Amino acid sequence: MAAFSTRVTDGLLNEIRAIVGDRLTLSQSVRDQHGTDESYHKPYPPDAVVYPRSTEEVSEIVKVCARHKAPVIPYGTGTSLEGHIAALEGGICLDLCEMNAVVAVHPEDMDATVQSGVTRKQLNTQLHNTGLFFPVDPGADASIGGMAATRASGTNAVRYGTMRECVLAMTVVLADGRIIQTSRRARKSAAGYDLTRLFVGSEGTLGVITEVTVRLFGIPEAISSAVVSFNDIKSAVDSVISIIQMGIPIARIEFLDDAGLDAVNRYSGLNFPVKPTLFLEFHGTDAGVKEQAEMVGEICAGNGSGEFLWATKTEERNKLWEARHVAAYAVTAMRPGGKPWATDVCVPISRLADCILETKQDVDASSLYAPVVGHVGDGNFHLVMVIDPGNPDEIAEATALNDRLMKRAIAMDGTCTGEHGVGHGKMDILDAEHGEAVNVMAAVKKALDPDNIMNPGKIVRF
Amino acid sequence: MAAFSTRVTDGLLNEIRAIVGDRLTLSQSVRDQHGTDESYHKPYPPDAVVYPRSTEEVSEIVKVCARHKAPVIPYGTGTSLEGHIAALEGGICLDLCEMNAVVAVHPEDMDATVQSGVTRKQLNTQLHNTGLFFPVDPGADASIGGMAATRASGTNAVRYGTMRECVLAMTVVLADGRIIQTSRRARKSAAGYDLTRLFVGSEGTLGVITEVTVRLFGIPEAISSAVVSFNDIKSAVDSVISIIQMGIPIARIEFLDDAGLDAVNRYSGLNFPVKPTLFLEFHGTDAGVKEQAEMVGEICAGNGSGEFLWATKTEERNKLWEARHVAAYAVTAMRPGGKPWATDVCVPISRLADCILETKQDVDASSLYAPVVGHVGDGNFHLVMVIDPGNPDEIAEATALNDRLMKRAIAMDGTCTGEHGVGHGKMDILDAEHGEAVNVMAAVKKALDPDNIMNPGKIVRF
Known about the structure:
2 copies of one chain form a homodimer. By secondary structure, chain A is an alpha+beta fold. Chain A has 5 domains: about 10-95, 2-Layer Sandwich (Uridine Diphospho-n-acetylenolpyruvylglucosamine Reductase, domain 2), CATH 3.30.43; about 100-215, Uridine Diphospho-n-acetylenolpyruvylglucosamine Reductase, domain 3; about 220-325, Alpha-Beta Plaits; about 330-420, Alpha-Beta Plaits (2-Layer Sandwich); about 425-460. Chain A has 17 helices and 18 strands. The first copy, chain A, has helices at about 10-20, 30-35, 55-70, 120-125, 145-150, 155-160, 165, 195-200, 235-245, 260-270, 285-300, 315-325, 325-335, 350-365, 390-410, 425-435, 435-450, and strands spanning about 25, 50, 70-75, 90-95, 100-105, 110-115, 130-135, 165-175, 180, 205-215, 215-220, 220-230, 250-255, 275-285, 310, 340, 370-375, 380-385. Chain A has a 7-stranded antiparallel beta sheet with strand order 15-12-14-13-17-18-16, sandwiched between helices. In chain A, strands 5-6-10-8-9 form a 5-stranded antiparallel beta sheet. In chain A, strand 5 and strand 6 form a beta hairpin. In chain A, helix 9 (about 235-245) crosses helix 11 and helix 10 crosses helix 13 (about 325-335). Chain A is globular. Chains A and B meet through strand 9, helix 8, strand 11, helix 9 and helix 11 of A and strand 9, helix 8, strand 11, helix 9 and helix 11 of B.
């Protein structure tokens, strides 16, 4: 039997078994899998993995853990990138994959309530005949609960917002097992503190999100996607800045540098020019999409772009965006055995070209392989550094590069993380970004989780 | 000299005078004015009114108040509607009107940072030559700080969002005088708890907002407004529901019932048909506005609307919206000596017609004069009940009607307040709306303001 941390005892496990029966496992392989995210971070397996099926079961389990002061780590699909699911102090992992019911769809209100384990692709599949879709798209087929917990965004955020904007309400199990509803389904409210936004992005440290009500949007009458390449990074990013500043309601505007584009070409069997490239998507009426595309075309041409390669058929568009979405995997595949370390800064749009160009110089001066991909319409971009996790020199070099990048972004009035979250990977930099406000976060944490059992060791120090 | 509450002593006043000099007044008339909002609520004057000029001065004053455990009540323009500025337990009113500097405009990032006392009209005037505007428009020329504190919205929210969406970051003085920045200027962030959204809508109960960074938007190429009347309320509201469900990006869509329209006609010297009426505004490119207007025209015609009365020139549009904005004053003027009591429910859009129609029946069965006006695109509407504050029977009748309305909205998964906030007027209903979540709000309040000096007696009980 595995060595448990002091707080996970046989007595605690038996109390949980009384709630969930055989939906508790101590299997080493399952525990290892649940301590491992998609990043370079070292795995920290939990002591046990439990598969609850309802908010009430989660509540009962958390009550048991609270009595024993045992850590509780909520788990969606394990696609996080900053060690959010690491059981740093052991504890009970709550894998919510069996809470995968779409509870209610209200097409007439353009919202849906789902259990936290529902993934974004599953939701969109189940919405298929409603004419509506859920837009937040981080690439990975993450769970809606996990996306809410990390305040995820992705390629559509420039038009439709992030989880901050797209979550209307949530059911949350608090650290003592109480169940709350953070808000109601009305589109706006001034009824007290905005608990919905407090729990969106709380990364499991304030409670377990068990149900999420999300906004839906009408599938546009017309959708068209394009790829356009530029001679240099500055021309591409300057085009993005102009497009955003002109208020063109573009749905997606994504950047890959030449290295990133090369990796995508190889991985996805494509043959786009190996140059700094924008992937674009337009949503609207037929006339609206045409008008947007013309305006964007003029801006890009003014910056010396190549021709637009259009994808209007659904299959072509899907292939194009699939290629963009697997960019991190494509880049990782360029170095067999390597692990991806995705940086995640976000800056005001006017500083984006400076931030990317200075960062590119920094990468060029290093020994690292680190293409740039990014949700540039939001001012957010990633270096996908592919590192050998067994090589301390390389990790030190990547750490230093990321530190400089985060400080550069903060100096530009930006953030160390646009969408990946803090986890335990970015706690140190949070002081530099937020200063005294970090103590306010800690005060909120202590008020809602005085024994620090909810995903301890993430976001704020206790 | 006025009788002070036990905690506002001469010693405390002298300490504050040492910070602000003669920008502290004990004048009865000034105190009375600062205890009186625009609602039917009874005035509660503060013990003194202070006019700080900087975040640092606010911090020093709050530190003094914290030492003396004296209440601190932030004051913007006094246009609140739920007694937010009432000094229920006496205390020091911080009137932020002298903090009225636009600190920075970043046109290239489409944002601006202002001191809290800047009003929305002042900001838009100062933005005049940037091609940008700040869209949140509650009608009154409220201060940006006050609008952030009450999570205000208004006529443009259906397109541009409320203060929840339009505030990027804030400077806040906490209950012990510490100064924090809630966030940075990046458009999105996953860097810890969303303190910006926690303080938006906190009504001065968690700290004093001293600076606000807001999103700006490009002034659209084309703007056009229209008024259209219907034979009955249901036809008007059903048109709204269809417009929203079709995803038409309408900028404003406002409803007045026949009684409200009649009051507006009389007050503003207009002669629109005295029928249930929608005020509409379209923003976009020339072609986009035309397309939107055609789609909306078809929907309204399908519901038996009258002709659209168009206003395309700026002066015509301003006159039209001025008439809509003064609707509450127009309705109040119908009953000389009366005070307005504006209800504020917001429901999911599919329930809007039911909610308005059931409420209308309830009004018809009462003795009250209470026209309906509303931001119907968000599912939000107001009854403007004009009451005699000296008549207890009338107040009892209005109280009962509002209680039924709030419970009706909550039963429809809506909220008791879409935009006016809780103040001390809606604390009782908050339990019905939020249940256990109210205790989470109280825990946050206690963590950040353990001595309950920040605008005590609002939102949550201590």
